[in-house]
Amino acid sequence: MTTQASRSIYSLIDLVYYFLKLGATGFGGPVALVGYMHRDLVEKRKWISEEDYKEGLALAQLAPGPLAAQLAIYIGYVDYRIIGATLAGLAFVVPSFLMVVVLGWAYVRFGGLPWMQSVFYGIGAAVIGIIAISSYKLSKKTLGKDVLLWVIFLGLAFSTFITEQENIWLILLAGMLAWGAKIGPSFFKKNNSILLPVFFLQVATEFTANEKLLKIWWFFLKAGTFVFGSGLAIVPFLYGGVVKDYHWLNEKQFLDAVAVAMITPGPVVITVGFIGYLVAGFPGACVAALATFLPCYLFTVIPAPYFRKYGKNKSIKAIVDGITAAAIGAIAGAVLVLAKRQFTDIPSVLIALVTILILLRFKKIQEPMIILVAALIGLLIKNWL
Question: Could you tell me the pTM of the whole model?
Answer without folding.
Answer: 0.70
